[in-house]
Amino acid sequence: MKQLFLITLLLITGFNINAQSKAKIKSQKIKLVTVWESRYKTSNAKEHKESVSKFDQNGNLVDVITYDNTGKFKEHISYKYNKNNKKTNETYYDTKGNVIKIIKYTYNEKNLKTEKKVYDGNNKLKSKKRYIYESRVSD
């Protein structure tokens, strides 16, 4: 449970870096962000690498690698985007480099998300969401 919470927290942090400063990342041509954490139990700090986030030339997050509190590799997530910089794929890898989950997104001609499909590591469909947009709401 604690690991799930930490992974979720790290992912949210990674997404916040991307969402809040995508334009800044692009304008400053940032390619890599490494997060280091220091923990203090006494006056001595224990420092470890928490995550590494990689960005493309458009400021899109393309890879996140997370580490446990000892600095050991934990998880790798890669992202792909379409020509409109909309995320089309998320691929999750375990510590051995095996694919454990794939999420695919599709969009309509207005760049609105229309579908999200989640697959397991064997490319078996596990869940699907459809998004339907309406310009009018009937009473």
Radius of gyration of CA atoms, rounded to a whole number: 18 Å
Low-confidence stretches: 1-20
Ends apart, CA distance between termini: 44 Å
Could you say which overall geometry the principal axes of the C-alpha atoms support? extended
CATH class type = Mainly Beta
CATH fold description: Lipocalin
Number of domains: 1
- Oligomer category: single chain
- Number of DSSP strand runs: 8
Q: Mind sketching the topology for me?
A:
Elements: H1 2-27, E1 32-40, E2 45-55, E3 61-67, E4 73-81, E5 87-93, E6 99-107, E7 113-120, E8 125-130
Antiparallel strand pairs: 1-2, 2-3, 3-4, 4-5, 5-6, 6-7, 7-8
Please name the defining characteristics of this protein:
Lipocalin; extended; alpha+beta
Q: Can you characterise this structure?
A:
With 139 residues, the protein is α+β, with helices and mostly antiparallel strands. The protein has one domain (2-33, 47-130): Lipocalin (Beta Barrel), CATH 2.40.128. The chain has one helix at 2-27; strands at residues 32-40, 45-55, 61-67, 73-81, 87-93, 99-107, 113-120, 125-130. It has an eight-stranded antiparallel beta sheet with strand order 1-2-3-4-5-6-7-8, covered by helices on one side. It is extended and about 65 Å long. It starts with a helix and ends in a 9-residue tail after the last strand. Mean pLDDT is 85; it is low at 1-20.
